[in-house]
Amino acid sequence: MAGAVDLSALKSRAEAANSAAQSPGGGDGCAAGGSHPAIIEVTEANFQAEVVERSLQVPVVVDLWATWCEPCKQLSPALEKLAREGNGAWVLAKVDVDANPRIAQLFQVQSVPMVIAVAGGQPVDGFAGAQPEPQLREWINSLLNALRDQLPGIRAAEEGGAGAEAEEEPEDPRFTAAEDALEKGDYAAAQAAYQQILDSEPNNEQAKAALVQVRFMERAEQADPAAIERADAAPDDIDAQIAAADAEVAFDKADEGFARLIQTVKRTSGDDRDRVRTHLVELFEIFPEGDERVAKARRNLASALF
């Protein structure tokens, strides 16, 4: 497998991901002069990182405003108040449309204020004009409820505060059993152990990440180099492209595997596109946090989807 998968740091990686999700602004996520990590001043220069990539973890609510817009002066403070109360479950991205015309063009802004919710790198909902705070709160809650099972950062932020206590907890015997099975090469037993955790705790991010890793390890052990040649000869065969990408990642050619699926995303639509995107995101999950190849591929995927 040429080191494609690093299970030794699985727990620390999952905990680090949860910690980052609980604080979407991070150490330097807030623009200069920002007043809260969940409120970000977005420009054309940081749009990709602060809106598209960030929306892979939590919803990003884009507030498109202008200095001359009177309704904006009512809407923006209300959104900022709700963002502060959200504890990082969502992020408010403020965009001055006059200073950032390309972002305004991207969202096809015809008037301000305009609010667009972005999740998973794509616009999912929005409205134009000022709204009273109760209606904004209802809209935000509806958005979070709809996306909670899709974006890991929402629930992590909502359940924040348990992290410090978790550090003092003893080793979970359920994970120990799964890891013991994996050390013996018993992929089926390891998957069953992680799945048993998820059956009782569907939102256990650590078990989710581990299950993705183990499933890939089993596929990688059976990877066929000929799958790449078959996929090159049949670019419209979704199954062939997925099998080839698995083989490329297994043979330490992650860049090629990621690029293959991103190109397939560009060529497809509907259910096929969703299937390829989901598989690619699962491949991202087998790599350690901060892997540059994954970061680059996430940006390219977001561009392909947006």
TrEMBL record:
Gene Ontology annotations for the cellular component aspect, listed alphabetically: cytoplasm
A GO biological process held by the record: response to stress
Any one Gene Ontology molecular-function term assigned to this protein's record: protein-disulfide reductase activity
Domain Thioredoxin: 30-145
CDD domains assigned: ybbN
Record key words, sorted: Disulfide bond, Electron transport, Redox-active center, Transport
A matching Pfam family: TPR_20
InterPro entries given in the database record: Thioredoxin-like_sf (IPR036249), Thioredoxin_CS (IPR017937), Thioredoxin_domain (IPR013766), TPR-like_helical_dom_sf (IPR011990)
Lineage: superkingdom: Bacteria
Family listed: Belongs to the thioredoxin family.
Name used for this protein in its record: Tetratricopeptide repeat protein
